[in-house]
């Protein structure tokens, strides 16, 4: 799970007018939806320049469906005091340092003041509307809500990992360090790494969710139900286990488990609202059991919704 802020995209005239559509991204977690938007615009003949930090570009280029129309341009992230070297997005730093990334991004305003555009798509950039007005552009707030930037509590971090250990199946966990820890390795349960050696990996960096979810070996996706993960989950074959943490994630989880019935939510205590390793294990075991009635129902509903979402007619 990861999230980033300070995303914005700029788009201008279509190809037939020999002008460019301009899109700019400085943060990683929201960039996939913005690139999806760029692909949609390119499909209609627009030329797009996508601005993003160099390291982020390498993780996005595989999803550029129109390389002849969408061009990546590197954005230099300015240095600010106390920001670690080479940090370019909020995925590169712990949560307490996120404001420094935002401060650095604010310093890039001058990079776009000379651009010619018709439309500006932006997310959290507070100065974008006033800049767009000054440049004679139209500004559209394309907000990607993603609340995964807040790390788990240490006890919940460990309960999740111990629950996966109980399941007994191979697993990959991608999480930010829990609150109060600098790395995931420092927060692992005692003896955990040795017990799951050879079948379990815990990774604290950024991963390509879409590429992993598309792999035929992946049978279950435990999602925090943020907006980005919500859409990625519905477009893939994996069975879904829902584990919301904060904000809109709870609404998305209820929609997926109660209304759409495409996944199983991890049970939480009525008094404290916390999940346990046993409840994590139970939810995963249900969806991974082909003979379980609930598993069959959520898989059938998921397949139907995916078919509708992928229908190009």
From TrEMBL:
InterPro entries: UDP-glycosyltransf_plant (IPR050481), UDP_glucos_trans (IPR002213). Residues 1-26 are annotated as: Disordered. Residues 13-26 have a biased composition (Basic and acidic residues). Pfam families: UDPGT. Keywords: Glycosyltransferase, Transferase. It comes from the Eukaryota. One of its GO terms (molecular function) is UDP-glucosyltransferase activity. Belongs to the UDP-glycosyltransferase family. PANTHER family: GLYCOSYLTRANSFERASE (PTHR48049), UDP-GLYCOSYLTRANSFERASE 79B30 (PTHR48049:SF67). This is UDP-glycosyltransferases domain-containing protein. It comes from Arachis hypogaea.
